[in-house]
Please model this.
Amino acid sequence: MTLSSRNARRLTVAGVLICCTALLGSALASAAAPIAKAAAVPACTSANTRVWLGDGGGGATAGRTYYPLEFSNVGHHSCTLYGYPGVSAWSGGAQVSLPATRSTASHATVTIKPAGTANAQIAIVDWGAICTTAVNADGLKVYPPGQTVPQEIQFPFQTCASSSTLRVGPITAGVGIPGYPNL
Model:
């Protein structure tokens, strides 16, 4: 074999390697492109979140009754909620007791698809265990996590004026089940 044929063979092998490397790099870049282009799921807003109290009489333990507080995505795109909702008792448009205390349950970001629902459990403590005089509440005022516009739920109950009778858990995926608190 002559020197020029060896060089020609080396150039051919090098050309094949360069070509294959370029093709492989292009294939890997196009496979990663959908991942890089995927946008983060935005937080739910007051325009695409509806809050409601789940069906059922609620589960109960000594001195507490539990209800699922539901958060539905009424928008056209998935959105996320993270943490705890703000909850308080209201009557005649005004807050009538201290806001709900939070459980120590762990929490994570929950993605809600369009027409999907997430929940947070709420416990209403028997007012007689906390104070001597009850105040009538017309319902709950709820601030979904990360939102500044409250939603009101008609739900009459009795509470204490100077203490909270409400305890709330973090947002979790899916529809809540009465009687299975995550508090």
Remarks:
- The CA atoms of residues 118 and 174 lie 5 Å apart.
- The first helix runs from residue 3 to 37.
- The first strand starts at residue 49 and ends at 53.
